[in-house]
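Researcher: Predict the fold of Purine nucleoside phosphoramidase.
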Amino acid sequence: MSSPTLFERIIAREIPSEIVYEDEHYICIKDIAPKAPIHLLVIPKKVSARVDEITDPNEMGQLWLTATKIARQQAPDYRLLVNCGEGGGQVVFHTHIHILAGWEGGPDSD
Ligand code: 5GP
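Model: Structure tokens for Purine nucleoside phosphoramidase follow.
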């Protein structure tokens, strides 16, 4: 059996995090190293290493619907981001969607 992912350990409360949303299938936490004034991670509890391992359209749809629901509760406008694979900038191999928001003048205003 493979060892639990970092996010599984967060879901299990073995590692502390700031949880902003949780239901039966998803958890949303604040990113530990925020790259925007609001930086959240939406994480399915069902483990897949990367987003393109999800082949069920319902599962993929529910993940995105959950992310947009949470994002809209945080800010009127936002960016959703998925890093896929090392070459795509993925560091934690447990599928997640980044929610980035809260800039004064948009994401490229700095
Ligand atoms: P990735 O590059 O895999 O798409 O993004 C992984 C994200 O997880 C990064 O933005 C990183 O800051 C965040 N992260 C890494 N370790 C932890 C942690 O222990 N707690 C939280 N809340 N976020 C983490």
